[in-house]
Amino acid sequence: VGINLTVIERASSIGKTPTIKRQAREFDCDVEFILDGDTFLESPNYIERCVQELYQGVGIASACGNILPMRPKDRHALAQTPEFKAWHGAAQFDDPHAKRGLLHGLWWWITNTYRECLYLFLQRFVYKGQMVFFGSITNPVGCAVAYRRKYIVDLFDKYEPIFGDDLTNSEDIFIGFALNNEGYRNIQLQDVLARSEEPEVQRLPRQVYLWSSSFLQSCYYFDGLMRTPFRTFKRMAKKRRDERAGVENLRQIKEQYRQPFGDKATQTYGRPVGWAMFLGALEKVGFPTALIILVALQMWEPLAVTVLAEMIVSLSVLFAVAKGQRFSMLLKGIIVMPVRYVLMVADTITMARFAIDLWITGNRKWRK
Predict the structure, then answer these.
(1) Between helices 171-181 and 204-221, what is the axis angle to 10°?
(2) Torsion of CA 40, 43, 48, 54, to 10 degrees
(3) How far apart are the first and last CA of the chain?
(4) What's 265's DSSP letter?
(5) CA triple 117-79-143, angle to 5 deg
(6) Within the chain, where are the H helices?
(7) What is the rounded distance in angstroms from the CA atom of residue 127 to the CA atom of residue 236?
(8) What is the pLDDT of residue 1?
(9) What is the tens place of the pLDDT at every residue in 6-60?
(10) Where are the domains of the chain?
């Protein structure tokens, strides 16, 4: 893409969170772009589009595109590009992933299929809905994301004295919550794509634990966002007062979804995107708990009806958003449904560990 790169090689890894912090503080550029080592940008203009969107409004703090799993055929297609061949320098690329073996290949296929269904559901339905209603998603997809560097510096200046580098079990989720808490926006673009390598299915529970626990931990830290539904009437009253006073006409910089900045506004009125976080936490805790209660009480008929209804709704949404591959995605969704429910029930272990940290051990050293 014609970008000059400076490579900094360390003797040992210092972790992603300290690296993001140091780069934000040591450089003077406007944008800090994060690209994980297991991710490649399938869209040549991915960085360009993310940076372009950051400049669309002062309230936009992060921008990312769509992320899908990296399949063997995607790796092969990447290896055939002139850019990759120029970097590799050999006549033929010997992909180590091609030597996984039949069993490991099957485990990887299961994860890729499950994640493809999940990512399409989230990015084309859940996140797209959040963008329409709130102008922001709960957190950016951290493997390929552009941040407004100044906001990241401010974030670490505020939270490093409190948490150090322990920004929950997944720093991307914490950063997304923190930016929303300040009134900034995390946006997702639908016209650019990156692909990320997924773990084999036997390692999937560990990764899901990190993501789920980080979401719960961030909900705990940013309780002002979680209280948004209970600030609805206060927020509506403020909106009416501002309309009568003509506050919107007094703004020198006008942008869509503009909100007052700062934690104080969040604590007083909440944020529109707080609804997504509140409902997400309610669903994450409530649905698996309900399934376990139905099993414990041996209420098999209500359990079957609940599971069937949930499957119909989720598969219908997946069918609707998977344009051009609806029937193949519907079949994949049915195939990986057992994996999805096993991971969903396993979330109860995550909730139990979070509760133990919260109320028994007092452990707050949450870090990936």
Answers:
(1) 20
(2) -80
(3) 32
(4) H
(5) 45
(6) 16-26, 46-54, 72-79, 82-88, 102-121, 127-134, 149-163, 171-181, 204-221, 223-226, 232-245, 247-250, 263-269, 274-296, 300-321, 326-335, 337-356
(7) 24
(8) 56
(9) 888 888 888 899 999 999 999 999 999 999 989 999 999 999 999 999 999 899 9
(10) 15-89+104-241+258-363
